[in-house]
Amino acid sequence: MSRFGDATAVKRVGEGRYEAVLDGDFGFAEAVNGGYLMAVLDRAAVDASPHAHPVATSANFLRVAKPGRAELIVDSRKTGRTAATSLVTLVQDDRRIVDALVTTGTLDAATEPSWAGAPPVPAIPSLEECTDFTPGSGEGGFAEQVDMRFDRATMGWLDGRPSGTPEIRAWFRLRDPYEPDAFALALAVDALPPVVLNLGAQGWAPTVELTWHMRAVPAPGWLALHGGGRLLSGGWFDEGVEVWDSAGRLVAQSRQIARTGR
Amino acid sequence: MSRFGDATAVKRVGEGRYEAVLDGDFGFAEAVNGGYLMAVLDRAAVDASPHAHPVATSANFLRVAKPGRAELIVDSRKTGRTAATSLVTLVQDDRRIVDALVTTGTLDAATEPSWAGAPPVPAIPSLEECTDFTPGSGEGGFAEQVDMRFDRATMGWLDGRPSGTPEIRAWFRLRDPYEPDAFALALAVDALPPVVLNLGAQGWAPTVELTWHMRAVPAPGWLALHGGGRLLSGGWFDEGVEVWDSAGRLVAQSRQIARTGR
């Protein structure tokens, strides 16, 4: 296994019941990352399903998850030949932390797309031209687990010069020897800093709801993350992420609705 | 009330329990439209919530809904000051038809956006330049309820000449005297023909999962629907719809994952 594999492992303890130990290093301060939580939820959903992949995950983040023990309850809602749906709930201290509707299916890595849209424009500059703004400090935390190389044009907010456009782009991989799979994609779709930082927003931007779709089995190597948003109004903003793999394929899509302060 | 108002009405029959009568005229053949079902689900969610609007609705379509009586079960998962989340299940004949996680909140119609992206390109041609391909026949059915005027450039599939690009654009309003609101938006985000018809796909394209976000209180008048997709692979396709109101504002966003035959 690997750090990410260990950190997202679920142990079956009964019919539709799992246990996990949430790893605080996949988070910031005391809040565990939402993508990491989805990776854990999706592992439970897939384990309880006849299908191999989390094709659709709609997660509602009800409360902040803390490092430590968690229970997962997988309530099967329908099992079909092509897809199965379950309600997966992550519980800590008898409180619901995340509710997710997860549709599992089985994607064939050998499938050629019938039709594929063009990659997003602009492309992310080469790895060499990008910057690691969050180098591993040796002190643990998210940046120790994930290697991200950012398009500098989207990182002006770090220096108090937000670009004015809610976009952030970056290369992504786990520092682990862990190649992209369904669960790494769950982490990837919520790994970028909030795109509204480029609109001058500050502070924490809690995700209320995030839906992501796994579209293909990813190739080994770096993933390209293209994050953008369409509207910030009344403290609500949307953020969509497309994830492209090293073979140039769209492998995941997400959209979340989140809150921000001023 | 109105036909749409009546058809989506829910009657509270107990704590978190509602009844509705599904109107077959909001559907095609014997299948009731998914957007119509979401309008019914969202009415129940809002009725059971302290908040006024369905800010996020993630619906999983488990089985085909039939016209006639349905029960709705609203299971409150968390109630907060800014938002509340519930699991809403539509049941017919003791079988789950749709499961939806619904986050309610209250949007202020007077709020000016902090930041808004540009409207989609290309714009939809004027109403006069668009075509009503599905005129009301007087025989009932979806086209009798909804007035849609299509951008002809996106309707080649009707004549066996699919455009090759999975996009469909149309103006939308209810034929009723019923101005756009949250529930009309639920109908609108799933009202377009499947965009994969422009890739040569044929037949029914059942939605597996659809998430939509209400972003603003819509102005009276026509709604503009911009539908597009990014990938068709292994029989799975995504379809996203942006809904813009007559005041030129983004009022709803959706993405669904659906199945198609060849």
Outline:
Chain A has 262 residues and is mainly beta.
Features of the shown structure:
Porin, 4 helices, two-stranded antiparallel ribbon, mainly beta, 13-stranded antiparallel sheet, homodimer, 262 residues
Explain what the structure shows.
The structure is a homodimer of 262-residue chains. By secondary structure, chain A is mostly beta strands. Chain A folds into two domains: 1-106, Porin, CATH 2.40.160.210; 123-262, Acyl-CoA thioesterase, double hotdog domain (Porin, Beta Barrel). Chain A is 11% helix and 40% strand. In chain A, strands 1, 2, 5, 6, 7, 8, 10, 11, 12, 13, 14, 15 and 16 form a 13-stranded antiparallel sheet that branches. In chain A, strand 15 (236-244) and strand 16 (250-259) form a beta hairpin. In chain A, helix 2 (34-47) packs antiparallel against helix 4. Chain A starts with a helix and ends with a strand. In chain A, 50% of the residues are buried. Chains A and B meet through strand 5, strand 8, strand 9, strand 12 and strand 14 of A and strand 5, strand 8, strand 9, strand 12 and strand 14 of B. Chains A, B: It comes from Actinomadura rubrisoli. Chains A, B: This is Thioesterase family protein. Chains A, B: Pfam families: 4HBT_3, 4HBT_3C. Chains A, B: Residues 130-258 form the Acyl-CoA thioesterase-like C-terminal domain.
